[in-house]
Amino acid sequence: MTTESKTIQTVAGAKRKAWVGTLSRVAKYTALRSVTMLITVVIGIYLTILIANMGGYVDEIMRGQIREQVAMTLRNQEEYKQLSQEAKDARFQREVMDEEQRLGLNQPFIVRSFRFLWDGLTLNLGTALRMTSDTGSRQVRLIILERLGPTLLLMGTSQLLLFFTSVYLALILSRKYGSFFDRAVITLSPTSSAPSWFYGIFLILIFAALLRILPFGGMIGAPPPENSWEYTLDVLKHIILPASALFVSLIFISIYNWRTFFLIFSSEDYVEMAKAKGLSDREIERRYVLRPTLPTIITSFALMLISLWTGAIVTETVFNWPGLGRTLFSAVGQYDTPVIVGLTIIYAYLLAITVFLLDFIYALVDPRVKVGGRQKKA
Question: Are 107 and 136 in contact (CB under 8 A)?
Fold first, then answer.
């Protein structure tokens, strides 16, 4: 065997060893990260169960409501009125016990909390206590799916428009530092301290109450249009005010944040070198500003996508928008624990999966990042 062939075999063996080492490192990191995320989800869901039930205090409220409901039902029955007092008491206690057993209140809260936890982890969301879907079903899964579409429509329209508009305008302002528009954005950025529902009230007063050119709220007019094209136009007409409220409440602070972030990278030495070479502003932004900031942009975009599931609780309530935010508001007011826990479980899973995938996406877009790797001291 010649020296050249031995060298080729040595290089091939080194490459094979490096490849196996990389796969082993990635597999170990994936397993460790998966376990960590699972533990985080378990803790988050269980804390949600405890908080939503107030440590069992909601059970006492439900027991009181059951006794009131059973008493009202029996009071209207003629056969119940003809019973003796002892028979009435026995019938009342039996009805109360049956209803408590149906809702699982006959078991200690600590036992039921772990059962809720297992059902949540397996996405067995169960049935709501009081809330129902438009079809009359109490399945939490159907209630969430029914409200998911309106929330994704509203939040997706406003948040995607907000994200891309703020990033685009921030890039322009980073080139025009100190200009009139730059100072105007800095001046208007404190207006984002007011929540979206605050702007929503003013938009309703101006465009719905005063000018009467847009509806006060809801997702569709009554009666709903039969034609699909008219139905779409009616939905778009109803979405203008809530989407505008969400957009206006965050646009200036978002532009300010991204503009400051881009200015930091625009002042690097390699950017000055690119300018000295005569590269265009667009090429400098694409190669020397956007590329190193891509991990942060991807993180912000990914977290924005999963935040679409949460909805805007108060804003949806103000505009009477039939989304998940309004559903969560109603569930809290009615002590409907399964619905609260169901919404939290889905969001927790989405957040854990997104954070898990972001680690691998960072390694793809940024060569400085290695999955499961450790920095070595020089």
Answer: no
What are the contacts of 203-211 at 24+ separation with CB within 8 A?
A: 203/241, 203/244, 203/245, 204/241, 204/318, 204/319, 207/241, 208/241
Where are the domains positioned within the chain?
14-118, 149-365
Q: Which residue in the block uniquely carries the two structure tokens 């438009």?
A: 134
pTM: 0.75
**Single-letter code of the amino acid located at 323:** G
DSSP string, 311-345: --HHHHHHTT--SHHHHHHHHHHTT-HHHHHHHHH
**What would the pLDDT profile of 204-238 be if each residue is shown by its tens digit?**
999 999 998 999 888 888 788 888 888 899 999 99
- Which fold, 149-365? MetI-like fold (1.10.3720)
Cis peptide before 223 (omega within 30 of 0): yes
Residues forming beta bridges with residue 139, ordered by sequence position: 127
133-160 tens-digit pLDDT: 888 888 888 888 888 889 889 988 998 9
